[in-house]
Amino acid sequence: MTVRRYLVLAPGHFADDAKTAHGVIRYGRDEIAAVVDPSCAGRSVRDVVPYLECDAPVVASVTEGLAQRPTALLIGTAPVGGALPPAWRSSVLDAIAAGLEIVSGLHEMLGDDAEFAEAAERSGVRITDLRKPPATPVFTGAAYGVAAPVLLAVGNDCQVGKMTVVLELARAAARAGVRAEFVPTGQTGIAIAGWGIAIDRVISDFASGASEQLVCEAARRNPDLIFVEGQGAINHPAYAPVTLALMYGCAPDALLLVCDPVREKLEGFDARTMGYRELIRLHEAILAPVKPAAVVGIALRTRGLDDSAAWAEIERARAETLLPADDVVRNGPDHLFGQIRPAVVKRQPAHATVTA
Amino acid sequence: MTVRRYLVLAPGHFADDAKTAHGVIRYGRDEIAAVVDPSCAGRSVRDVVPYLECDAPVVASVTEGLAQRPTALLIGTAPVGGALPPAWRSSVLDAIAAGLEIVSGLHEMLGDDAEFAEAAERSGVRITDLRKPPATPVFTGAAYGVAAPVLLAVGNDCQVGKMTVVLELARAAARAGVRAEFVPTGQTGIAIAGWGIAIDRVISDFASGASEQLVCEAARRNPDLIFVEGQGAINHPAYAPVTLALMYGCAPDALLLVCDPVREKLEGFDARTMGYRELIRLHEAILAPVKPAAVVGIALRTRGLDDSAAWAEIERARAETLLPADDVVRNGPDHLFGQIRPAVVKRQPAHATVTA
Description:
2 copies of one chain form a homodimer.
Chain A: E1 5-9, H1 19-27, E2 31-36, H2 45-48, E3 58-59, H3 62-65, E4 72-75, H4 89-97, E5 101-104, H5 114-123, E6 127-129, E7 150-155, H6 162-175, E8 180-183, H7 187-193, H8 204-219, E9 225-228, H9 240-249, E10 254-259, H10 276-287, E11 294-300, H11 307-321, E12 325-326, H12 334-344
Parallel strand pairs in A: 1-2, 1-4, 2-3, 4-5, 5-6, 7-9, 7-10, 8-9, 10-11, 11-12
Helix pairs in contact in A: 1-7, 4-5, 8-9
């Protein structure tokens, strides 16, 4: 696959909530030419978000960014509802006019936008909508026949770092000589790995089936382990159906619980998050009648806490659940991977098989 | 809304699994001109399926059915995956050529089929795809503000009669002077009621939001009660995401459990169905952290059992759960409605409200 050189569009959002931009910069194989965000222009990416470990410049506009010789414009945010902010249209048109490919993970399909499509045709550039799902069948049960153990990330809310944890653990696995396949299930994971399906974009009746297809595709590469990026949260009123599609469709052998330990309310709702034991009980109860799987570890997002507060939260998670717990960004993923490895290398027998 | 006069297409399926045909014939407001099924042509609908209480003829072909002066052709089945059986194409084209509107609840959008679309334009007829969902927002929490109590049907599997139970209870409510609004969530319910959204066709990220929109639309008619048609089953690996979208999106105050008491395996899967107490526990556990709601009664589908076996199953459900239980088709819905009424007239306070 061609390596792109990205101009990353995230005006006003890069420092705080440009989830797609951050994921692609930290974990992707593509080059980063520059980030477009007037609110922090003139600094470097590393200076604005040190964790990304990237020295590309932040610039004020697409036009200014062209000096960095990008080959593609990446829409760097994933707003609720997934529409392109109207103020960003002119930036997209500038990029098309400059001959850049447009890469977008929005729900709104930029390739279906008449003005963009016409401009792209005129400039001979491609519009790549990462979230456009392929046609997939309904769930068939083929996932029950996958040979490698499947580990699925679930969480106490959206935006707690499920994808990051899975990517870090896959790196730890590689260092330990375990061939782990990362399965992307959302637009950022797809932008990073270059394949995958955005399950949240799939028609509900086919969401389990699409999840199954992803696991089966990963299995065809004969990995030792399959790590599936999670989505949403099982008690999030808006996004739980996507979470459940992954829980049933991927037929996981084990779950990894990813939590922000200090978050008290669900993203966007005045509804409480659940405690560790309550989360473990509910996830395991839902899987039990179909194909049982246990939570085998807890990954915490302690960003924003000082070292002693972070350690206190990690200790609390261990004490409450008697499971391995760690922050794989703060402390590196090798220790947690080593701890959960014995529990995930065994493929569980499925209760359910297909009769039809 | 115009009343249609339907020619119902269900070749080879009418007697057994033409769920859409049966629902529309028994509960719809449209007229039935004839049913097309060569395997039982020459008999009457009542003779083939007595429960439908309809004297329209069954005919061998669309051409033969034209003598009954239909105004529309209804695709009468809902196959897994939702594609039109290729052998049916010529019947659809015959109907279009004869000037009939085409009404379909398939996943496959007949209006997007080039051959059908062109034929329809030539004949000046409309193709109505019932399952095509409108654009809906993500879940907002507006459902928490609905004044009328919301009762949602859930079940121990697909195809256990959830829609039928809700329609029968809505009739019982009307007889008892309670203004109950039926909320259609699938293609047959939409064909019956003339509004609604097929939740299984909605993009996953918006499925809870679409469910919420339906409840809010029903609430605008100021009913005393809102009865929501259920979909799928919470432990069905293929369809559970749709079930969960309704459970969170409709913000129900109470659940009605609809079960086939003798079904041991899930439709199409070698996976066991759950028992009554296990089902109640799991549904209530899933709702508890968001907006708690209890199962208030059990509707059984005892079709195929003799009277004494049916009563034994009803008694077993009552004894195991201490809840009201009955078969509303076999025994009529008034008794069960009277029993669950006190439990559903009280609107539960929501835990969750919107902050964003």
